[in-house]
Design goal:
Layout lengths: L17 E9 L5 E8 L6 E7 L5 E5 L7 E7 L5 E7 L2 E7 L5 E3 L2 E10 L4 E3 L2 E3 L3 E7 L7 E10 L3 E9 L15 E10 L5 E11 L2 E10 L2 E3 L2 E3 L3 E8 L5 E11 L1 H11 L2 E3 L6 E8 L3 E8 L5 E11 L2 E8 L6 E9 L2 E9 L4
């Protein structure tokens, strides 16, 4: 609409001279119902209601309701009456008038606060409500005194808590009390009521680890410590330890004693070092060659199997040498570096502490 309300001050002396229209609607006859607030020369700012034709000419106006409010909704009912509503002092107000703006009554408003859990529906008079918000229901809308229900629906969340647990074979789950007699990964779940009274879920992933047996062979310099023991002669040596999960680890190695003097002399002569040790996904081997030499470097697992040979019978020049070895696919555990230089052998234990 691009028209303005035309007011004759002689016939409409009480119509607001400064007006703010807050609600407007068209009628079946093409007229417009306006609601807003404003002030006149003789009266302070008040709520008003008016009806104008399609040209903006005033048909009638009411400015004598005696209160100040802002209407946000206006409509014409089927019997020609007018229904208005708005917010005043954070409360909803409603008003019903006849076709000339005379107040019939103030409709009753009932407030309902309801809560449901996520995924549920609230049944109100056969209507299933699932989304949070405020809903307004009108009863007997074509009578003078309507009844209105304003329902505020709150949707509370359901929780899902995930946890992880590591057990040794034969231990009991603190979550369910189940005893696990086989290794593997198992899923435990249960339900509980959260702080909102909504059924929620706990999912516990259990990894059951059996006793770890490590078998292999190793070269150990005479008089050095291996598996917690000082080694003086070749033979079968064992130890019992705990893994990172606290489960039993049994290591058994066939040990071959090598000359401590020879091994230490060679290691010292070439400045053999590994870093980091313990390691995770990569290890660096460094050594110095005083002269040109034929070199072989092998990494063995605890079963005596060669995992990788980064240097295989290569003739290397004198000076510093560095080997970077990727170990992403190695399991956690003990490994052995065997370095042969012109047939002389030295070895070193290395330990991987993270899983593949």
């Amino acid at each position: 609409m691009d028209w303005q309300i035309q007011i004759d001050p002689y016939t409409s002396p009480d119509f607001p001279q400064k007006t703010y229209i807050t609600a407007i609607t068209s009628t079946e006859t093409g007229d417009y119902l306006l609601a807003g607030y404003g002030s006149t020369v003789s009266q302070p700012e008040r709520f008003f209601l008016a009806r104008v034709d399609t040209e903006g000419q005033l048909i009638w106006n009411r400015f004598d309701y005696g209160f100040t409010a802002i209407a946000s909704f206006i409509t014409e009912t089927e019997n020609g009456g007018i229904l208005l509503s708005g917010i005043k002092d954070e409360h909803t107000w409603m008003l019903h008038t006849d076709s000339l703006g005379n107040v019939d009554c103030v409709p009753t408003i009932n407030y309902i606060n309801a809560e449901i859990c996520e995924g549920e529906a609230y049944d109100y008079q056969g209507q299933l409500l699932t989304n949070p918000g405020t809903y307004t229901f009108y009863y007997q809308p074509n009578t003078a005194c309507d009844s209105i229900v304003q329902l505020t629906l709150l949707v509370n969340p359901k929780d899902t808590i995930e946890s992880n647990d590591y057990l040794c074979l034969g231990e009991y789950s603190s979550f369910t009390g189940i005893q696990y007699l086989e290794e593997g990964i198992f899923i435990e779940d249960s339900t509980y009521l959260n702080q909102f009274g909504c059924e929620s879920k706990i999912i516990n992933t259990v990894e059951v680890v059996s006793t770890i047996f490590i078998e292999g062979w190793a070269w150990v310099p005479y008089g050095t410590e291996f598996l917690g023991q000082i080694i003086y002669e070749s033979g079968l040596y064992s130890s019992v330890d705990t893994s990172e999960f606290g489960c039993i680890t049994i290591a058994s190695f066939a040990v071959t004693v090598i000359s401590k003097a020879a091994g230490e002399k060679l290691a010292k002569a070439i400045n053999l070092s590994t870093a980091p040790n313990p390691f995770c996904n990569e290890i660096r081997v460094s050594f110095d060659l005083p002269t040109k030499a034929t070199v072989t470097a092998d990494f063995y697992n605890s079963q005596g199997k060669i995992l990788i040979s980064p240097i295989k019978s290569q003739l290397l020049t004198a000076g510093e040498h560095h080997i970077q070895v990727k170990t992403d696919d190695w399991p956690a555990g003990m490994f052995f570096l065997r370095l042969s230089i012109n047939g002389e052998i030295t070895s070193q234990k290395v330990l991987k502490i993270c899983q593949q």
